[in-house]
Amino acid sequence: MAIATPTIRPGEAAHFGKLAAEWWDPDGSSAMLHKLNPVRLGALRQAIDAHWSAAAQTTRPLAGKRALDVGCGAGLACEPLARLGAAVTGVDAATENIAAGREHAAAMGLHVSYFAGELADLPAGTFDLVTAFEVIEHVADKPAFVAELSARLAPGGLLVLSTPNRTAASRLLMVEGAERIGLIPRGTHHWDDFITPDELTALLASAGLTAGALQGIAWSPGRGLHLSADTGLNYIMSAHRS
Question: For position 1, what pLDDT does the model report?
């Protein structure tokens, strides 16, 4: 029996686990995630409506579908997915995040199945929607991680990922800028681990997936974070089975 390649970096799990208590505080250490999350969710809804044509006609487009959020933290994407009607599973490397996610979902009256550990160790099953927001830049083995995402995608399913681009702009604004002044906790990002859209497209192809829509997540003083044609800072990409 083949042993799955580990994708979790213990140091990364420890870093994010320390932030668990403030994950749901919009003014705490995860404040930037709270600003980013509505932008990601807007792009996600666009991808859902494009992939399932009937979805645009309802407020619960994922009713009857199973969704998996990988690297879920304490559930910033899991809970909106549940409100869209999905049966949601969240998996994260940090046990502290999973505990915080369970507590918050219960307080909100939402059911989310949370699992701490490697994606490969999640009980068997596939999902109609798989998401991985700001995760792939933190994993130990990107090809293994994308292969695991592909393995969890049901026939006809949709995969949506977001991640920083490896550009001079992302180094300046996200690493040397936002982390230096405290907008993002120090040590969150390692610029060399960022991945370009072309590199991600190639990884998806190697895992039997075809890249779909690509949008940038840009920042400006007037608009803050927003969806854009400019992918130089961050981007969100959908994919489906080839």
Answer: 33
Domains in the chain, CATH or no CATH each? 10-241 (3.40.50.150)
d(CA 213, CA 238): 5
| DSSP for 17-59, written as a single string | HTTGGGTT-TTSTTHHHHHHHHHHHHHHHHHHHHHSGGGGG-S
Question: What does DSSP assign to residue 169?
Answer: H
**Residues 6 or more apart whose Cβ sits within 8 Å of residue 163:** 134, 135, 136, 137, 194, 195, 200, 234, 235
User: Residue 130 in contact with residue 148, Cβ under 8 Å?
Assistant: no
pLDDT tens across 19-66, in order? 899 999 999 988 889 999 999 999 999 999 999 988 778 999 999 999
Q: Which of 75, 18, 22, 35 is nearest to 174 (CA)?
A: 35
C-alpha 70/C-alpha 60 separation (Å) is 21
pTM > 0.85: yes or no: yes
User: Which of 157-166, 175-184, 202-211 is the least confident region?
Assistant: 175-184
The span from the CA of 123 to the CA of 137, in Å, is 24
CB 171 within 8 A of CB 181: no
